[in-house]
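Input C-alpha cells:
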C-alpha cells in the first residue's frame, strides 16, 4: 500500500505488536464519525505498543483534503479499490465501511467489526491484547 507521501507501507512494519486496522472513506459518514475515537485510542495506547492503521478506500486527493481538515496522529495508507479485496480477505464479506480488524502481536485476528466502532468495543479489544 502507498502512504500519502508516496512511500510503500507493508504490514511487516507492524509485526510483533497489536494492530487495529480500520477501513474507511471520506464519503462514509460513520467512518468519519469514528475517526476521532480511533485517534484518541491511538494516543492513549500507542505507548503500550498498540498501533492503529487507517486504510482509505478513496481517492488520494480526497484523503489529503480531508486530513487537512481533520489531522490524525495514526498512519493512513491508500488502499484504493484493492482495499475492498483486502477487507474481504479479512472477513468483510459485504464490502461495507467502516470495517475494523484487531490483530494480536502474533498477527492473528482477535476481533473484527463491520460498522462504526464504539468506545466499549475498543475497551473490550484492548483487554484482549
Amino acid at each position: 500500500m502507498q502512504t500519502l507521501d508516496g512511500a510503500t507501507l507493508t504490514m511487516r512494519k507492524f509485526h510483533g505488536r497489536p494492530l487495529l486496522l480500520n477501513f474507511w472513506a471520506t464519503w462514509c459518514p460513520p467512518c468519519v464519525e469514528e475517526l476521532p475515537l480511533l485517534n484518541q485510542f491511538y494516543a492513549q495506547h500507542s505507548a503500550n505498543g498498540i498501533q492503529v492503521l487507517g486504510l482509505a478506500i478513496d481517492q488520494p486527493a480526497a484523503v489529503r483534503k480531508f486530513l487537512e481538515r481533520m489531522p490524525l496522529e495514526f498512519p493512513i495508507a491508500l488502499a484504493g479499490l484493492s482495499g475492498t479485496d483486502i477487507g474481504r480477505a479479512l472477513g468483510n464479506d459485504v464490502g461495507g465501511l467502516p470495517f475494523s480488524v484487531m490483530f494480536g502481536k502474533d498477527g492473528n485476528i482477535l476481533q473484527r467489526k463491520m460498522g462504526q466502532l464504539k468506545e466499549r468495543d475498543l475497551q473490550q479489544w484492548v483487554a484482549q491484547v
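The two ends are 25 Å apart (CA to CA). The chain has a mean pLDDT of 94.
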